[in-house]
Input
Amino acid sequence: MSELAGKDLNAFTIFKFLSFYAPTIVPLVLPLSVLLAAIMTFGSFAENYEFAAMKSSGISLNRAMKMLNITIVLLSLVSFVFANNVIPESQYRFLNLRKDIVQSKPAMAIAEGQFNNIGTMSIKVDKKLGENGNELEGVIIHLKNNQTGMGANTVIKAKKGLLKSEDSSNLLQLELFDGNYYENVVPKEYNERKKEPFAKSSFKKYIINVDLSKLNKMGQDEGDITSEKMLNINEIKYAVDSLQANYNKDVVSFSDNIVQRVDYVMQKKVKQNEKPEKNVDDLLSLFTKEDKVKILDQAKNNTSSTEFSIQNSKSDLESKKKNINAHWIVFHEKFMIAYSCLLMFFIGAPLGAIIRKGGIGLPIVFAVIIFIAYHFLNLFGRKLAQEDVISPFLGTWMSSIFLTPLAILLTYRATNDIGLMISFDWLLDPFKRIFSKFGTTNKQNDTTQHTA
Output
């Protein structure tokens, strides 16, 4: 709603905007709806003694749930087709509509008084003026340079700015007036970086072109609107194969480059010297004192350069691995949506039959508690999988793995007319027998002493 309010959009555009985004909420809403409906329905049956009437007529709970089981299986299949086809298409249309709105109203991409991330640029403005808000005052821009790995090393400040865009272009043009440009210069030589050189200049007019395709990750829902969610299962498989092949190639290339970092100066000087009569343990002993200093100094520089290269390559490989994990998470989520409908039904239906309460009171309490646990485990597992702590399969299915035994237990107890309370006598009986045995032995000893 923050992207729509105050943007002077017509009602039809707002309706399309919300309609295209609504399918992404279905995976969150559908399991809760199934759970709550099952608890309320079966709780009402049990509260009004409908199940007692069924059982007196020879209809068991399994038979009463037969058609509902078939219905919930069909719902699961429909939800899988929905997740595999409708959600990716809605994401595609949503992002394109968002881009069209930004093109027609460029100021929508920027909010006042806060930094707005647009691709590799972070921009902040004090005020937006003009009919469409495209006239800016007090502009501060941070430009990130991903090639150096040093973060935001360029800052641009301007008193005024102007946003321009064309319907036929995919670029948003930002014109800045009366400002300054600051840049941290990163030398190629590692030792020169300790001097922290920088460049500063002033300008009357400065133009920046922004790629609108990078606005896909604009806003607070950056983690929820990603390119992999616009793919179906076959497309995800193809994308993952390509990403994994590139990742493996980068790992091999990086390893080869590190291994091949050899001190060629030492090799050259060893070749220049006469071959020693016998093998030596210390190669430095073959050189003069001046050559030793040069060799050690170059070794130190090579070590620093190699360490810097390893850190940059590590960040790049971790980013690519997270991207691969994100694709696998979306892949498994399509199947998990279907299974979550089955899971929530076989938790809610027997739970409603056991607690024997219908309506919207106690069933909502149980539904919310169960769904919070389900949603928390789902988020927790997904975050671990994204950070490559656990596999994407285990992270995506973590909530289902924990709650499936609960569904089996509740279904078993409901079909066998067992209450909600669980007996732990099977666990305590061995200890009771041990303590009772010691108690009997002590009592016999006391009796023998008293007789004596």
